[in-house]
Amino acid sequence: MKILSCNVCGLGNPRTVQKLRHSQKLHYPQVVSFIETKINKNQMEKVRRSCGFHYGIDVDSIGSRGGLSLAWRGDFNEILYGFEKKGGLPREERRMKAFRKVLEDCSLVDMGFSGNWFTWERENLPETNIQERLDRGVAMEEWISLFPDSLIQHLPHSFSDHCPLLINTEYRARRLVHKNFKFESWWVLEETFFEEVRCISENSTRDLLSKLENMKKGLESWASQIRRSRKMKKEVLTSKLTTLLKSDRSDENLAELIDTKIHLTLKIEKDEC
C-alpha cells in the first residue's frame, strides 16, 4: 500500500491541482492526505474527485488558513471466512486468504462482537437474499490490553443495509444532573398538549408564580410520560427487529422486517422533531 501526505499550501490555483494530479498518476497511492488546502470542503471534494479519489473526508479551511482532506481509493468489502456469508455465490478463497494475511501482517486481531452475526444484508426476496459480515472491529494486542473490557455490539438498524457498530471501551455510570426547565418544540405537536395545559391551568388557584411553577412541573411530568411511552415503543420495535434479523429469511420474515424497519424509523424521526 502507498500512502501520500502532502502540505499543498493551497489548492485554489488550477496549476497546483494539475501538478497534484500528475503526482497521483506518477505514484498511484491508495491513501492520500492533503494539508493546508485553504479551500472549503465543497471545493476540496471536486479537487479530490478530479484526482481519482471518490471516497474521503474533507474539512473546511478557516478563512485563508487550514483545510484538510483524507482520501482513499475504493470501497473495501471483504469477509475472512466462507461461513461469514449466507446466500449468493461463494466468496473466492484467495480473496479471503489475502484479507487474513493483511490482518496478520499488521498484527491485528478480530475483536469479536455481540448481537446478530451478519452486518450487511441485501434483497427482499428469500431466493435472492444475501447476508455477510462485512463490518468488524480489529485491534492490536496492545490496544486490547489497554481496554480489556471493550465490547463491540452489532446494533439493530432500520436506515441502511449495513448495521451500526457500537464500541464500548468501558462502563461509566451516568451522573444525575439537575436540569433547568426547557420548553420543547415537539410538545405542541402532541395531540394532548393543549388539553394538558388547560387542565393544569384550571387546577392552579394561587398567585401567578405558583401557577407558573405548577405549569412547569405539570408539563415536565406529562412530557416524561410521553418519553417513556415512546421509549417503550421503540424498545419493543427494536427487540422485534433483533429477533427478525436473527431469523431465517422467508417472504413473511422479509415483509415483517421491512414493516418493522419503517415503523422504527418513523418513531426515531418523530423523536428528532
Q: What's the order of the H and E elements? A: EHEHEEEHEEEEEHEEHHH
Mean pLDDT: 86
Could you list the spans in which at least 5 consecutive residues all have pLDDT below 50? 171-178
Per DSSP E runs of 2 or more residues, the count of β-strands stands at: 12
Keywords: Nucleotidyltransferase, RNA-directed DNA polymerase, Transferase
GO molecular function: RNA-directed DNA polymerase activity
Protein name: Reverse transcriptase
Organism: Gossypium australe
What topology emerges from the helices and strands here?
Elements: E1 3-7, H1 14-27, E2 31-35, H2 41-50, E3 55-59, E4 68-72, E5 85-86, H3 93-105, E6 109-110, E7 114-115, E8 120-122, E9 130-132, E10 138-139, H4 141-146, E11 151-154, E12 165-168, H5 193-202, H6 208-246, H7 251-272
Parallel strand pairs: 1-2, 7-11
Antiparallel strand pairs: 2-4, 3-4, 5-9, 6-10, 8-9, 11-12
What do you see in this structure?
The protein is of the alpha+beta class and 273 residues long. It folds into three domains: 3-72; 82-168, no CATH class; 185-272. The protein is 42% helix and 15% strand. It is built from seven helices and twelve strands. It has helices spanning 14-27, 41-50, 93-105, 141-146, 193-202, 208-246, 251-272; strands spanning 3-7, 31-35, 55-59, 68-72, 85-86, 109-110, 114-115, 120-122, 130-132, 138-139, 151-154, 165-168. The strands form four sheets. The protein has a four-stranded mixed beta sheet with strand order 1-2-4-3, covered by helices on one side. Strands 5-9-8 form a three-stranded antiparallel beta sheet, with no helix packed on it. β3 and β4 form a beta hairpin. α5 (193-202) packs antiparallel against α6 and α6 (208-246) runs antiparallel to α7 (251-272). It is extended, with a radius of gyration of 26 Å. The two termini are 45 Å apart. Residues 171-178 have low confidence and may be disordered. This is Reverse transcriptase. It comes from Gossypium australe.
